[in-house]
């Protein structure tokens, strides 16, 4: 399923990647919902031989409403009981390119784990080398996949759905319904599954390539929307998760609760880190003047800024190496190329502070969706 708005610039690459899947074509159908489109996207989808549902509703726009109406269209207009006809529903964004083994790898995962309800694939970056901002996005995604999603899955915890490149069991979707109330339907579904005693699996071999913004303003707007929805999920689901932690004493519930706490943690990290840096420079200045006195508790204040520095350096140093090991067919980028992204990396992380504060202020507004423009065509040899 693909929900898209005015994506004529990129939709053909996605459709082509779905047409060339290493998986029997008769075992899957593709449905596209054109949400309030004013360009040629719907016609391009038809020309490619796929079904497209066009909806025009200025009051209820965006992915949440588009998918909801598409499910109704499939059931009532096409007469397909989708929860019986299909085992799973795969979700993609229009700017994605899907690896040829995606459906094959997802099918293998469901066969190995017959009771699984949702599986998130590896969301890689389609344009990692366009500029320093997309390089930073790529570093963040590579590290999150390797150091966060994969360890959580192997530890028996729930991973998080990423909005695209995931498969949800249709019977589970039918039972839960598609009724997200925030701007981050993926996080809502993740929290709901955990509250039901389920967990999201992770499949690193089912890969999709996602376009990252080239412009700082667009990046800010996109991430503010994400965090605004994240704040809403924290305020909405954390009470139930806290009760589940106290009642069931399951690490999975606690892990999801802490993940929902992430925006608040961002602010806490920043202010603690800022205080640590200021105190460090103040101590250095006093010692320079010969008036400083070192105490054991000073070490505790120094630990936070040092850990922050190590975290950023490890991201730059380790993520490209992991990428080269796990993506042998992609172009090899020089190791020191990513060292150049260090200033942008720090700027990227610092941006989370005003983003998180603004999102917290606007948390009640879960309806003001603004499209992120996509223009990057894929280099076929790189996929």
Descriptive overview:
The protein is of the alpha/beta class. It has a domain of 182 residues. Strands 3-2-1-4-7-6-8-5 form an 8-stranded mixed beta sheet, sandwiched between helices. Helix 2 links the parallel strand 2 and strand 3. Helix 9 packs antiparallel against helix 10 and helix 11 crosses helix 13. The C terminus is likely disordered.
Per-chain topology:
Blueprint: E1 2-4, H1 11-19, E2 31-35, H2 41-47, E3 51-55, H3 63-77, H4 82-85, E4 88-93, E5 97-98, H5 102-112, E6 118-125, H6 132-154, E7 166-169, H7 170-176, H8 185-195, E8 200-210, H9 216-248, H10 251-260, H11 262-288, H12 298-326, H13 342-361
Parallel strand pairs: 1-2, 1-4, 2-3, 6-8
Antiparallel strand pairs: 4-7, 5-8, 6-7
Taking strands numbered 1, 2, ... along the chain, how are they ordered across the largest sheet?
A: 3-2-1-4-7-6-8-5
Spatial gap, N to C terminus: 21 Å
Q: Roughly what fraction of the amino acids lie in strands?
A: 5-15%
Total strands: 8
Mean pLDDT: 86
Shape: globular
**Helix/strand-derived class?**
alpha/beta
């Amino acid at each position: 399923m693909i929900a898209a708005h005015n994506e004529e610039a990129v939709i053909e690459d996605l459709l082509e990647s779905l047409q060339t899947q290493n998986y029997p074509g008769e075992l899957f159908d593709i449905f596209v919902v054109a949400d309030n489109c004013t360009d040629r996207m719907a016609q391009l989808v038809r020309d490619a031989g796929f079904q497209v549902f066009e909806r025009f509703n200025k009051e209820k726009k965006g992915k949440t409403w588009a998918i909801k109406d598409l499910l109704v269209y499939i059931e009532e207009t096409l007469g397909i009981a989708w929860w019986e006809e299909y085992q799973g529903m795969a979700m993609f964004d229009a700017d994605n390119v899907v690896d040829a083994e995606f459906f094959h790898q997802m099918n293998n995962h469901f066969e190995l784990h017959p009771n699984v309800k949702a599986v998130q694939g590896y969301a890689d970056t389609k344009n990692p080398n366009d500029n320093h901002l997309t390089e930073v996005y790529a570093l963040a995604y590579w590290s999150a996949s390797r150091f966060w999603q994969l360890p959580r899955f192997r530890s028996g915890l729930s991973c998080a759905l990423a909005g695209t490149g995931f498969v949800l069991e249709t019977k589970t979707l039918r039972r839960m319904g598609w009724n997200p109330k925030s701007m981050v339907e993926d996080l809502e579904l993740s929290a709901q599954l955990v509250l039901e005693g389920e967990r999201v699996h992770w499949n690193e071999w089912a890969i999709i390539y996602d376009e990252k913004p080239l412009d700082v303003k667009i990046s800010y707007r996109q991430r503010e929307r994400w965090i605004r929805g994240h704040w809403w999920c924290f305020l909405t689901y954390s009470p139930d998760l806290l009760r589940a932690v106290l009642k069931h004493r399951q690490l999975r519930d606690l892990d999801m609760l802490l993940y929902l706490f992430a925006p608040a943690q961002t602010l806490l990290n920043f202010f603690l880190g800022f205080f640590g840096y200021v105190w460090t420079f103040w101590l250095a200045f006093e010692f320079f003047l010969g008036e400083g006195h070192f105490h054991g508790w000073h070490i505790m204040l120094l630990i936070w800024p040092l850990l922050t520095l190590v975290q950023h350096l490890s991201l730059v140093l380790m993520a490209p190496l992991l990428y080269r090991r796990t993506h042998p067919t992609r172009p090899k980028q020089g190791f020191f190329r990513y060292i150049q992204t260090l200033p942008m990396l720090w700027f990227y992380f610092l941006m989370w502070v005003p983003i998180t504060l603004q999102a917290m202020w606007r948390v009640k507004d879960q309806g003001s969706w603004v499209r992120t423009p996509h223009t990057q065509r894929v280099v076929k040899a790189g996929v």
